[in-house]
Amino acid sequence: MIIDCHVHVNQYELTKHVPLLEDRLEMLQTEMTSNNVDYAIILSSYKENSERPSTKQIIDAIKKYDNLGIAAGFTIDNHTDDDLKIYREWIKEGKIKAMKIYSGYEHYYPYDKQYQKVYDTCIEFDIPVMFHTGDTYSEKGKLRYSRPLNLDDVAVDNPELKIVMCHLGNPWIQDAQEVIYKNKNVYADVSGLVIGSFDHFFEKMMRDKVAELINYAGEPRYLLYGTDWPISNMDSYLNFVAKLNIKKEFRDNLMYKNAKKLFKIS
Ligand SMILES: [Zn+2]
């Protein structure tokens, strides 16, 4: 079984030729089928426009699929308390499986008090909050907000909060592994380490870094498989993880078991 806990249905440069959300969802299904991916979590964006569907639009559009879940993007600048109120209803109805904070894209630290209401909601309903960490896929991002070390504050101050550090904080993977090692409530997904496909040398470099992270942080109860599709290619990603030198039981944890439990996927 394979769970990809990090995909997008926004219209990026790469998917400009697919203007309709419904068609991008079909594209996602085709990709999932051809790569034997059983379930995927779609992350809604930090902004809503013609290229970036709202959480509500995604909820409506995925009704006909039983293999998709949603992590709802929440921002200080573009969302209100009313939005959070609606999110709470959707969480109760099982339509939202996680929240997503876009640190770096949005210029606030993850420990900014303005996000506390989101963390409180996640704790109340026992759903994880995902954070963008590391390089931003936009020149407008500000890196000091997306450094993985910032999540240490959130993890320590909210011991009951389940935190997912997206992209292993790349390129600050050493910082990321310490935050993961120290805080039992911090998980990490391996998504978005490459744009498109891995080439031979980059793949080896990233494989060594992930191996170092696992050696340092220990048995990967925290590690989640994710790609960042369509920014990263699913087939290239499966090749990448297939070559990771890890025990069978750890591989199962990475590919689906950890995500199944964390996101409560039945
Ligand atoms: Zn992403």
How does this structure look, described?
Helix content is 39%, strand content 13%. It has an eight-stranded parallel sheet with strand order 1-2-3-4-5-6-7-8. The two termini are 12 Å apart. The mean pLDDT is 96. It is globular. The protein is α/β, with parallel strands linked by helices and 266 residues long. The chain has a single domain, classed as TIM Barrel, CATH 3.20.20.140. Helix 6 runs parallel beside helix 7. The protein has nine helices and eight strands. Bound molecules: zinc ion. Residues 6, 8, 43, 192, 228 line the site of zinc ion. Residues 3-264 form the Amidohydrolase-related domain. One of its GO terms (molecular function) is carboxy-lyase activity. This is Amidohydrolase 2. Keywords: Hydrolase, Lyase. Pfam families: Amidohydro_2 (PF04909).
Shape: globular
The set of bound ligands, ions and cofactors reads: zinc ion
Spatial arrangement of strands, main beta sheet: 1-2-3-4-5-6-7-8
Order of helices and strands: EHEHEHEHEHEHEHEHH
Largest sheet, if any?
Answer: 8 strands, parallel
Distance between the termini: 12 Å
Number of domains: 1
CATH homologous superfamily - what is it? Metal-dependent hydrolases
Radius of gyration: 17 Å
What is the architecture at the second tier of CATH?
Alpha-Beta Barrel
The tally of beta strands, per DSSP, is 8
GO molecular function, one term: hydrolase activity
Protein name: Amidohydrolase 2
Keywords: Hydrolase, Lyase
Pfam family, one: Amidohydro_2
